Amino acid sequence: QVQLQESGPGLVNPSQTLSLTCTVSGGSISGGGYYWTWIRQHPGKGLEWIGYIFYSGTTFYNPSLKSRVTILVDTSKNQFSLKLTSVTAADTAVYYCARRVVMVTAPFDSWGQGTLVTVSS
Amino acid sequence: SYVLTQSPSVSVAPGQTANITCGANDIGEYSVHWYQQKPGQAPVLVVHDDSDRPSGIPERFSGSNSGSTATLTISRVEAGDEADYFCQVWDGNTDHVVFGGGTKLTVL
Lengths: 121, 108
Prior knowledge:
The complex is a heterodimer of chains A (121) and B (108).
Chain A: E1 3-7, E2 11-12, E3 18-25, E4 34-41, E5 47-53, E6 59-61, E7 69-74, E8 79-84, E9 93-101, E10 108-111, E11 115-119
Chain B: E1 9-12, E2 18-23, E3 33-37, E4 44-47, E5 61-66, E6 69-74, E7 83-91, E8 96-99, E9 103-107
Parallel strand pairs in B: 1-9
Antiparallel strand pairs in B: 2-6, 3-4, 3-7, 5-6, 7-8, 7-9
């Protein structure tokens, strides 16, 4: 069974870049068939889709974050990553990585446990 | 952009039925997925494609979708069902993911 695990700094200074990595085990990113996704949840709030990447590097981003987001994949390490630039307190959230089948209507069937990132000086 | 509307909260007594709704224009034309999230935990898929249950999800969880409302129904509610529930669709017009704002289910 596939498992996803987020990692990265829990504290980021305002105006800096938030960087997180999701390590996938129990399945190969390069095998294709899935979109590898970042989702965040502000404290006490709902879920916000950030974007996703295919093993080939093709990406789709939430328009509201697109100018600040980069998602990359490293198939040799079976990881994908998130970079969010120019962060503010509004980017404080729990960040989840997840996967969904490459099918138009597929749900997110596996999630990481999430990692809290706080933006503060 | 496509917006999914959920009531902020639903309360139900143990053993009763909880109906959690997700509203949007023509949502019946979309495939709706439902996630359960307990405090401090990641969301868990409980219903996908309107009415299908992943393996391991109790039959008490069911879903329907028609017109402008999708509904997650939890029968014979238990204390352990207390959680936030989110609906989600794939907006094929934009290739983007959309989540509802979530409904907090309280078991009285």
